[in-house]
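Q: How do we represent a protein-ligand complex in a form that can be generated token by token?
A: Start from the inputs.
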Amino acid sequence: MTVYERKENESVSDDIVWHNSAVSNKDRASLKNQTPVVLWFTGLSGSGKSTIANAVESLLFQLGKHSYLLDGDNVRHGLNKDLDFSNAARVENIRRISEVANLFVDSGTIVLTAFISPFVADREQARKVMKKGQFLEVFIDTPIEVCEQRDPKGLYKKARAGEISNFTGIDSQYESPTNPEIHIHTSSKTVEQCAKQVVEKLKEFGYLDVSS
Ligand code: ADP
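Then emit the structure tokens for the protein with adenosine-5'-diphosphate bound:
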């Protein structure tokens, strides 16, 4: 059994206790004049998660807000490079990402995650790791035909040729969010319009201006 196949909530040792730091999460957040939150982007491969998340980060930067993007491919190069695409490893992939996102939120940062995260149960699991109000599901809603036409990494072509198996939308299911906090339809919009829509929602929900 690999370490990541331990049961949920099972720790290696009972002797590990959480340390509270002298500077609180509230202190760190107020210094940044923002309310930290995780923007959990979900959508098919090629739907635009990374592209829009990057554009949102640029807009937030211009507004003087502190953010960090956890991108699927990048995380798999380091922290999660020991994980394959089996079901157990996919669950562990999401678990580690949500724990890392939670630490970033504790640091006062607005976190953006860009992973397909196709299953409702896994996204709900991620939501549970964060405190109430610190998790916003962002559905990047793009029809599969459009994603396949874009095919920015040539993955649909490979999946159709049978070179990749368990490919979401083709031979693995994508469970669409039923009630996402932010819902973006990309096919009739530019990247900039989609990113602006996300930032407007953040403003509307009160995450960007704490002092005013
Ligand atoms: P994902 O991260 O969901 O796999 P990517 O962001 O890597 O998707 O790729 C999306 C592709 O679609 C990019 O090549 C991007 O330029 C293109 N694209 C076209 N229109 C849009 C749009 N409105 N929003 C996001 N991406 C778009």
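The chain has a mean pLDDT of 92. The first helix runs from residue 25 to 31.
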